[in-house]
Automatic annotation (TrEMBL):
Protein name: phenylalanine--tRNA ligase
Keywords carried by this UniProt record: Aminoacyl-tRNA synthetase, ATP-binding, Coiled coil, Cytoplasm, Ligase, Magnesium, Metal-binding, Nucleotide-binding, Protein biosynthesis
Organism from which the protein derives: Aegilops tauschii subsp. strangulata (Goatgrass)
Pfam families: tRNA-synt_2d (PF01409)
Coiled-coil regions listed in the entry: 1-32
EC number: 6.1.1.20
Species lineage: Eukaryota, Viridiplantae, Streptophyta, Embryophyta, Tracheophyta
């Protein structure tokens, strides 16, 4: 009842039970009853907003455990002492795993020093000896360097003799005879070793044990030249 003037006014119901239609629409929408036209109207009136919701359903898998167990990767001394190795479960090997990257491409100080010294000698006119012949005869590897055939000094090398070809026939007979004489009876101020030097032993092929054998070959080769002169 509203008193605006001296007169009394009475407000009367137009319907018996009043219903809020918008409220009912929102309740139906909350229950999942979607009406496209209704949603458009509610969105226009900014009574509802559209949100994207992602939900997941999780179930126990075949390997589900309440407490995770650490798998072993190696058998240690402690495992063997305690006997735990009997109950260990090992992690599967991953054969596709990548190894640690190899550190390559770095400068090596010793190689730099060697190259610097090498360039000095090359600029002075020296030339390098060919060292790519890895199979050598016992003559150049030992006899030409005056190591006795029965001396233990030969055993100090990691010597591997060849089966095929087991021997060589490319030895200079004149120089071989001189080396033989020095071994047996001496010469050039030496008394020799005083033993029976055998050519068969000198002809045996082996994997070259040192590059000094190349030096012996080169000295003999240079001695055959009529005039020796350094390379320009």
């Amino acid at each position: 009842v509203e008193d605006t003037t001296d007169e009394m006014q009475e407000l009367l119901k137009r319907v018996e039970n009043g219903e809020d239609e918008v409220q009912e629409q929102l309740k139906r929408l909350e229950k999942g009853k979607v009406v496209p036209d209704l949603i458009k109207e509610l969105k226009r009136r900014k009574l509802v907003t559209k949100e994207k919701v992602i939900w997941y359903s999780l179930k126990k898998g075949p390997e589900f455990v309440v407490k995770r167990k650490t798998l072993a990767t190696d058998v240690t001394r402690e495992h063997l002492k305690s006997g735990d190795w009997k109950d260990l479960e090992f992690k599967d090997y991953n054969y596709e795993a990548q190894g640690q990257p190899i550190a390559i491409g770095y400068s090596q100080p010793l190689l730099e020093v060697r190259e610097a010294i090498q360039n000095i000698f090359l600029e002075m006119g020296f030339s390098e000896m060919p060292t790519n012949m890895f199979v050598e005869s016992s003559f150049w590897n030992f006899d030409a360097l005056f190591q006795p055939q029965q001396h233990p000094a030969r055993d100090s090398h990691d010597t591997f003799f060849l089966k095929a070809p087991a021997t060589t026939t490319q030895l200079p007979d004149d120089y071989l005879e001189k080396v033989k004489q020095v071994h047996q009876s001496g010469g050039y101020g030496s008394k020799g070793y005083g033993y029976d030097w055998k050519r068969d032993e000198a002809e045996k092929n082996l994997l070259r044990t040192h590059t000094t054998a190349v030096s012996a070959r080169m000295l003999y080769k240079l001695a055959q030249e009529e005039h020796f002169a350094p390379n320009s």
